[in-house]
Amino acid sequence: MSVMPAVSGVSGVSGATGVPGVSGASAGLPSASGASSASSASGVSGTSGASGDAGDMPAPLAARARLFPALVAVYRAQLSRARVARIPLLFVATFQSIGIMILMRGVVDGGSEARSVVAGSSVLVVAFVALNLLAQYFGQLRASGGLDHYATLPVPPSAVVLGAAAAYASFTVPGTAVTAVMGSVLFQLPMTNLWILLAVIPLSGAALAGLGAALGLLAPRQELATLCGQLGMSAALLLGVLPAARMPQVVSYARDLLPSTYGVEALARSFDGQPDWWVVCADLGVCAGVAVVSLAAATWAYRRAAVR
């Protein structure tokens, strides 16, 4: 009878209800093992969470291309792409300008009117390529979704606009030079100062190319971009080739707003026996300022069209 309580006491000890020390030891072992399991489990989960967070981090992007290398790359790509397609159109622009001078030869004999005709016909080659064709190109690029290709590249928008404008303006150099030489022979004008074309072609080309790119990018439809390019070239034809002295006063105001007018005036004044080079430089300076504004407008139009 005395053994039963002892057994009961032992069972009480094992149940951690009798002696505090024993209950602490007996209760601590399972707690320690549980804590160890919990800590190891939490450690594993924490490690896996950290690795998961590291795996979800996006990879660093490549550095954005600088303006000048990107401009050269776009220029070379546009030049090689448009070389085959644009050379026949360059011949068309050159023959068109030469034909206009031949027609005007029966109306204009010489003097300041002849200088205006030759200068306007020479710059008309620039207007045909840099204004008309570039407006059609950017209108087609926007309609076909080609702007998405440039938007994915780390290339500044100004490099795209300047590269395409420079490539199209480069095609105008031989046609403009041939037209100016043939016009000088046809109207018996001096060719001593034709080196001024080295400044007239890039400045007029930049101004007209920026205007053409802006028209092509802002036009809501490709057909409207083509129409705007044709209208711009027609304005360069009528306001640039026809002598300014025979125009009405209202039309002369519209002539002052055309970017190519100042290139025409600079080239026409170079045919004088003693050109006023200060006035020629002033005309080229205005042409350069218009070129900066038109190219900035084209860059803004490119950003606006690329995010739509």
From TrEMBL:
Subcellular compartments: Membrane
Highest classification ranks of the organism: Bacteria, Bacillati, Actinomycetota, Actinomycetes, Kitasatosporales
InterPro entries: ABC2_TM (IPR013525), Nod_factor_ABC_transporter (IPR051784)
Keyword Transmembrane helix assigned: yes
Pfam families, per database record: ABC2_membrane_3
GO molecular function per UniProt: ABC-type transporter activity
TM stretches of this protein: 89-108, 114-138, 159-182, 194-217, 224-245, 277-302
Membrane topology (UniProt): Multi-pass membrane protein
Name the UniProt record assigns to this protein: Transporter
Key words of the record: Membrane, Transmembrane, Transmembrane helix
Keyword Nucleotide-binding: no
ABC-2 type transporter transmembrane domain mapped to chain residues: 115-299
A GO CC term assigned to this protein in UniProt: membrane
